[in-house]
Design brief:
Shape of chain A: elongated
Low-confidence stretches of chain A: none
Strand content of chain A: under 5%
Largest interface: A-B, 48 and 48 residues
Number of helices of chain A: 9
Oligomer: homodimer
Helix content of chain A: over 70%
Radius of gyration of chain A: 18 Å
Mean pLDDT of chain A: 93
Structural class of chain A: mainly alpha
DNA sequence: CTAAAAATGTAGTTATTGCTACAAAAACTT
DNA sequence: AAGTTTTTGTAGCAATAACTACATTTTTAG
């Protein structure tokens, strides 16, 4: 126990407890008092374990990001597949509750990042690149085209959240069309 | 002058002045005092001309939406074109400053709407449907496929903002790929 | 066991928020 | 001109925000 300070342990515990709340509520309704409530502690304590609110938020968000990586790893760890297949799989995932929450949160991040908030620029950039890399690796296309194809698939799928934030599955017909187009290649 | 009350005129003037600020700053940095400053009046006056803040915000946002319609009308009013062409044109538009601002704002709306905020659900829903209708009309494809294709094109293009909120043009390769795919049809 | 250090509670500060009470000025009506 | 209505300024309220001062308890170390 010489290398894992008690403080670090407590931090981790708090972060884990808050992750769910951030996924459910996004970046609003995240006052220190509210978060303290969710984590079963006090605002005073949150600021004892974390430098300030930004520190706390970043910790929770990166934790969520890492978690996502694991989920994808488990779901996707296969040999490369053709684009149409990958899109189909991603669309299924995005419609699942777990990933829908992730996407909603990412939407929040993008919105903040687009306003040049440096904190969220870094986080959303990292999240985006992680996804692109992951999807690229899954695509059975020439190396030179992997990145473009990955972005294309993600934009199309995630874009449904942009267009239909309250019921992304309304974009079903568009995704079907996209898969059909990809299938012809 | 019997039908246009002074109050209505003043409201319109305020809304027009605030539109630019909303486009530039989104839905944050919009305290009544800040907005009053931008509009060259006082918070007291804003609440005199508008019922409450929501009323003011909705007014400004719908004004912006209507404005957008005009811009598109002017830029797009042509005969139907094949999907690849439409996507190319839309991508060009989205990269222009005017429309980039609009999209950024829409991203904010989507983010709020995805959290079930009824105010923003209504607005973003309306904006989305307006766009879909507009694009549908421009597409030279069978009627039954218009909507799906319009959504597909928009999601792909707007999705770049989602994935690369700080520099959407990073998605250039993906759009090129999409156009290439559409061209083969 | 005692002293230092870590952990936590209580209570506040300062700033900002949307909104309001009240009164004075300006404009309009007759 | 007198009275009514519309418009505007001044000042403030009550709620919430992040964060802090200070005291106290709990844990750890020697």
């Amino acid at each position: 126990m010489a290398f894992v300070s008690k403080k670090a342990t407590k931090r981790a515990a708090i972060v884990a407890k808050l992750a769910g709340h951030f996924l459910a509520s996004g970046l609003e309704d995240t006052s220190l008092r509210r978060l303290a409530d969710v984590a079963g502690t006090s605002d005073r304590m949150l600021l004892y374990y974390f430098e300030n609110k930004d520190d706390l938020v970043v910790s929770v968000l990166t934790h969520i990001g890492d978690d996502l990586a694991l989920v994808l790893e488990a779901k996707f760890a296969d040999e490369p597949k053709p684009p149409a297949e990958v899109m189909r799989a991603l669309w299924e995932l995005v419609k699942s509750v777990a990933l829908a929450d992730q996407l909603r949160l990412w939407l929040d991040l993008s919105s903040r990042a687009s306003r040049q908030d440096p904190l969220y620029m870094v986080i959303s950039e990292a999240m985006g690149e992680a996804w692109i890399k992951r999807l690229s690796a899954l695509l059975d296309v020439p190396d030179a085209e992997k990145r473009a194809m990955a972005i294309l698939i993600m934009a199309t799928v995630d874009g449904q959240m942009f267009l239909f934030p309250t019921a992304p599955e309304r974009g079903e017909i568009a995704i079907a069309k996209a898969i059909e187009l990809l299938d012809r290649v």
